[in-house]
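Researcher: I'd like a structural prediction for the single chain below. Treat it as a standalone chain; there are no partners to consider.
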Amino acid sequence: MSGITRMDISEEWAHAGIVKAGDFCFLSYCVGNIGGTVEEQVNGAFDEMERRLALFGLTLDNVVKMDCLFRDAWNIPIMEKVIKERFKDNYPARKSIQTAFAHVGGEHGLQFQADAVAYCG
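Model: Treating it as a single chain, here is the predicted structure.
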C-alpha cells in the first residue's frame, strides 16, 4: 500500500500508534500516567499524542479531531481544563465517550484514553 506509513507499532497489541495516509495521520490508544489522577492521565495521554505526532514533525496544533474515552464521563471538565492549557485555542473537534476499559488495574487503573486525527498535508 503506497502512501501509507505506519509507525509506533505494537506487536503485543497488534496495532500502530500512528498511521499517515494521504494528508492525515490517525492516532490510537494515547494513554499515559496510568494509575494517576484523571488530570495526570489526561496530560499523560496528550504527552503520548505529542510524542507520536513528532514522528511526522507535527504538534498538537495539527490535531483536528479527537475521540476521548473516559471510565467516568463526569471527568470531562478535567479534560476540558487540560485542553485549554495544552491546545491554546487551537481546539480540535471532539467527542467524549464513557466506557468500561478492559485494562490491567480495573477501576483504579486506566481512566482516560484519546484517539485523534491530525492534518499533515
